[in-house]
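lol forgot to send this yesterday, sorry. struct tokens for the thing we talked abt
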């Protein structure tokens, strides 16, 4: 394809959101071109939790089986006290959960999800993908948009979708007066460790079969198996006491160790083996309801960057993609009307997820009497009480006037777990 060829749909960003959008549009018959800044379509980071609201989208796209091939299906989501090592509460994600939502909760390696999306995109003759295309300028046009890349190439399209993540260049064009990211001074260290190297952290227990979140004052640690249980995904999050906007000397490895020094041995064991190559700064933005302008719209973290505390950023990007594609079909390809309807449908939901993630972070990181009250309240819930999460997991991603999505089919529930001792 010539760089100057006029395209129908141009997606900026080939991450989870961008590739899912390309696939969803192609399934409705629309040709799509994707521009990715990196040299290759790849995901950095480690594990990813995908809830039923995301599985439902993957199923509609016909790639759920491929994505779950090497996934792990935790039996429970467990909240533990990082200081005492006691269990606070849990949510069963077994048969009852799958019956309720039609799909399982699963955890996967990011690379596995991206590979499945890429394979499906490459199989489609409606999708073209271009790496090493760093979009540096976006020019809105009355009936589309033109973009220029750092290498000088120029593309013009009837419709532009910015799926270029939390630092989105497309967002800067649409919202030049956007409020600055909200940065509470929290950082994350994350990566996978072979399960065989986890013996100290598992304190002699043979098997980790749950998604476990350890909560403590100003910190938490997430721990779950990926790749059929061969790897353990670890994410250690803490609020830096040394945070200052004019220096980089904060959120360091030393501070990681200091912060988790008072935690229970299982948590300290995880922090000892966690990947320290990179420290991720965590931020979100105040929800915005104006991320669409005529033939340009945003999607995923570009539209609604959120803290990862309820593990929904990627799930929301998947939902966005499905609703956007349905909206175009419902509006018979009338781009401006379809993009507007997509935003109208998505804004209230994504705003609620953004603010819920922030609130949940405060509950996780609370100290003193607040922590005692949290623990006392949460420990009274039953493990099959889904009332607080129905709104999140039961959502069906489709344009309001579109055709209903297929109903959930019987879904895999994971490998049977051997009956030896558990981590929780
Ligand atoms: C520690 C952590 C744990 C998380 N855990 C979960 C979880 O368990 N479950 C969950 O659902 N979510 C989770 N998330 C959130 C999730 O990772 C993101 O919400 C998701 O990756 C967003 O996808 P995206 O495609 O919108 O953006 P991104 O993944 O950021 O992709 C954007 C893409 O655009 C490209 N790009 C950027 N700028 C340009 C440009 N100018 N030109 C061309 N290309 C460009 C980038 O290279 C990138 O490939 C987590 C996040 C963090 C930080």
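and heres what i got for the seq, position by position
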């Amino acid at each position: 394809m010539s760089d100057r060829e006029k395209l129908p749909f141009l997606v900026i960003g080939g991450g989870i959101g961008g590739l899912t959008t390309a696939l969803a549009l192609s399934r409705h018959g629309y040709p799509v071109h994707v521009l990715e800044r990196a040299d290759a379509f790849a995901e950095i980071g480690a594990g990813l939790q995908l809830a039923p609201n995301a599985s439902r989208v993957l199923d509609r796209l016909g790639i759920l089986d491929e994505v779950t091939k090497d996934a792990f299906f935790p039996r429970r989501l467990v909240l533990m006290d990082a200081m005492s090592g006691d269990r606070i509460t849990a949510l069963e994600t077994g048969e009852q959960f799958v019956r309720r939502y039609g799909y399982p909760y699963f955890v996967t390696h990011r690379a596995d999800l991206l590979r499945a999306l890429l394979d499906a995109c490459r199989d489609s003759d409606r999708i073209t993908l271009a790496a090493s295309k760093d979009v540096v300028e976006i020019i809105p046009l009355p009936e589309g948009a033109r973009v220029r890349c750092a290498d000088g190439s120029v593309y013009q399209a009837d419709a532009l979708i910015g799926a270029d993540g939390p630092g989105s260049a497309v967002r800067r064009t649409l919202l030049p007066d956007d409020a600055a990211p909200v940065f509470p001074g929290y950082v994350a260290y994350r990566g996978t460790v072979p399960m065989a190297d986890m013996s100290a952290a598992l304190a002699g227990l043979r098997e980790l079969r749950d998604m476990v979140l350890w909560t403590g004052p100003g910190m938490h640690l997430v721990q779950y198996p990926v790749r059929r249980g061969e790897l353990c995904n670890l994410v250690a999050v803490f609020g830096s006491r040394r945070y200052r906007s004019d220096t980089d000397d904060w959120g360091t490895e030393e501070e990681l160790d200091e912060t988790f020094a008072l935690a229970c041995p299982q948590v300290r064991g995880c922090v000892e083996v966690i990947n320290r190559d990179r420290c991720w700064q965590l931020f979100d933005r105040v929800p915005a309801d104006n991320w669409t302008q005529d033939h340009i719209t945003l999607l995923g973290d570009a539209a609604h960057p959120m803290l990862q505390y309820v593990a929904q950023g990627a799930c929301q990007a998947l939902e966005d993609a499905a609703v956007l594609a349905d909206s175009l079909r419902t509006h018979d390809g009338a781009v401006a009307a379809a993009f507007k309807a997509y935003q109208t449908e998505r804004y209230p939901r994504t705003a609620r997820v953004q603010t819920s993630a922030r609130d949940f972070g405060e509950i996780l990181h609370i100290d003193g009497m607040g922590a005692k009250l949290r623990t006392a309240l949460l420990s009274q819930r039953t493990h099959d009480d889904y009332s607080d999460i129905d709104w999140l997991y039961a959502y069906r991603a489709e344009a309001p006037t579109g055709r209903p999505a297929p109903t959930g089919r019987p879904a895999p529930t994971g490998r049977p777990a051997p009956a030896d001792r558990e981590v929780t």
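DSSP finds twelve helices and 17 strands in the chain. anyway ping me if u want another try
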